[in-house]
Amino acid sequence: MINTTLIKIRQKIQAQNLTLQEAAAAIGIGSSALERHLSGEYVRSDSMAKYRLWLEGVQTQNSSQHIPKQRNNTGEGFLPPLPPIEGMDTLSIAPQKPLNVVDLFCGCGGMSLGFERFDGGRVYRVAMALDIEAPMVRVFNDNHPSPSGDLPIARQSDITDFMSEAEIQGYYLDHLARSTGDTALAKELTKLGNGGIPSLRKRLSELDQDFLENLYAQRSRTDYISAIKKLGSATLGQTSVSGFHNATKLPSSGSSYPKVGPLIWHHDGDIPNTVQPFDAPLDDELLRSCRSGMRKLWDNEAGKLTTRASGAGRGQLASAADRIDKFLDFLESPSMRSVKALWVEWRATREAVRRSFFEAPLTQARLKSIYEDGRQVTVLLGGPPCQGFSRIGRGKIRSLKEQSVHVHEDEDSVDSRNQLMHQYVLFVAALAPKVFLFENVRHFQAVVKAEGIEFDAADILAEAIESVSERGLGYAVSRKIVVASQHAVPQARERFVMAGVRKELSKILSSTDAASWCLSLQRRRAVPLQVALEELPDPNFSNQEHQERILEKPHRPQRNEAVVPDQASDIYRAWAFRGTVVDAHLARPPRPDDEAFFSLMGPGKRWMDYRCDEAPTLQRITTILTKLNDELKASPDLGARLGISNDEISDLVATADGSLSLRLLLESIPPQPGELQHHLLTATYLRKREGAHGDWLSRMDPAQPSKTIVSHMAKDTYAFVHPTLPRTLSVREAARVQSFPDDYRFGSVGLVDGFRVVGNAVPPLLSLQFAQRVAQVLSNEELMSGSRKLPYVTPTVEPEPLTIN
Description:
Blueprint: H1 4-16, H2 20-27, H3 31-38, H4 45-55, E1 99-104, H5 110-117, E2 124-131, H6 134-143, E3 154-156, H7 165-180, H8 183-189, H9 196-219, H10 222-231, H11 233-236, H12 239-248, H13 284-310, H14 316-331, H15 334-358, H16 361-371, E4 377-381, H17 393-397, H18 400-403, H19 416-431, E5 435-441, E6 447-450, E7 453-456, H20 457-467, E8 475-483, E9 494-502, H21 503-506, H22 514-519, H23 529-532, E10 540-541, E11 550-552, H24 568-576, E12 581-583, E13 586-587, H25 592-600, H26 616-634, H27 636-642, H28 646-655, H29 660-667, H30 683-686, H31 731-737, H32 750-759, H33 764-778
Helix pairs in contact: 1-4, 5-33, 7-8, 7-16, 7-19, 9-15, 12-13, 13-14, 13-15, 26-27, 26-28
């Protein structure tokens, strides 16, 4: 039987999250002796004395004079510890080196941040992040510096460009080598044949440069320049025309030197002059196939333009259709047919080179070997846009294995959103993570209909991931709607989250569903909006996109950081209120007439809350005015006797509806100089009510969690009026609501893009809690076996787990 003193020693080591070596140094005893004693071996009296003194807080003569800072594997002091899982070690010790995490569709890094900051960075490291939008990538890299500085962690990449599992592995390994300065890995990648990945990059770089120079020469011709001037900037800037260029990766039409958008392996960093380009001969049949595919892509995108132009409509829609028609005529011009020929040859040759390189069996085998030699991705994060996913269908799932060779040949994936879903599955198959987390809109799991057939997107995704890989991967999958406000995030954000755990890992847990455990976040009392807005200075006001001023936060009393917070608001504050300054505290300056209206609104009130549709007085007014109007029509002389006109009464009848109360409030506010009335006094606004975006203008409730922060705030912020001040939220305040810490920087993208990147993000405090759960699952997996764990001692009295209501 183990001595009760040793049980208390064990419990104190667990409470302080000390390693075996740290605990031994603090006690003043050898680590091997400590391990034996905790296992139940005999303890000499002098050692027992040291144990008793340490429990009493007395430092012994032989103990270390410098005890390491207390470690907290539950999130750097932000979260209370989790209750133990049956069959799992209650003490999770960090691995010898942080586990690799890849974040797809990474946005500005909300999901990554929770994993990266968990346990002070000792468990996870974000190895690579991909997103197609430049502002997202810029913010991500501002906050996640590259270890080597040679290559940023986040890359602006179009994920639909990847063609095979081997290419994904090659891209990731090349990224890992250059972003970490791993010269040994870089050397291995040069031995893949024909100079390896550096030579592939060199060949693609030369192809890109030749294309751009030839394209510039073609666009410098007189006939092309004349056609561009005739089109005009409005046509070239039209949304559908821009979409054509984005989908084809054709540099935007114009006379300036062309630039290629986010295409993988393009503009991909420096390549030493000593590297020779990949020069393996290309198969003629392969080239023909690639040319055919590129022509088909061009024609499909042009066909979409034709379809959009046919739906003319009125007003702006008619103008857009006219511009699309002009661009379609331009596509058929001789100068653009020459551009198309250049483009087809460039894209086809580029694709053929990549396929020739990555489809070589020896290259695939070698990449797999290099990847599995300690470079594996442990956690895959991300959730692609999925509106078109229902068209994939279950029949396509069975062929995903074959499609992974070349996804773009799948005719059912013409919709780029479907391609994104294919690509997500392809990444799971290629990287074979121990755990994946898929996050998306709440309605992702809704049953939808397509061509008379019902689909459940979540079911199809789970089935695809479970069966896609040739290596026999299998995942135990769980799904859940997660409400952020139930987990210390001051926002009522609802998201669909799916977790997958490799089946061989899941089987380790005898009585616990590991995938469900990853999603079963502890519920906590809601954090009100007023907490999120604490301790911020007054914002800067600007409509400009860029303004990087940093503001100092008001002084606050110093908190005892050693105390683990035990309330949801304290958990939130400990996580979010970091540092003494903030950036991106930038709000739109309110119009004086809007400011006056905001001041009239009560906390938590929406535009439609000020309607009076059911008011009895309104009904009486409407009835009387209607009768009077009828009498005036029947007796024209009545109006003359009363001194009123029929038109006046008709106008009053038209205004005597539920919006009358709003009208009276707005009319009480003086209009802006040069305006006849308040700019919101139009029928378009006044008819807004329940079911018709009546919450488009809302004052937030300080006592409740915020409504969902959305990217639409980039266009207007009327739905997010400050709860106590007559203005709308700032970018920093929106970031606070999303639970971004104050030291997370958004200033480099300004106001418009700032709202976009914040609105699209995953709340990082939510991600931190996922990271905590995943870490506890992974702590039982043998990849952590290199870290020495304390032997498990069953206490005589099982302590109750700490819970937060």
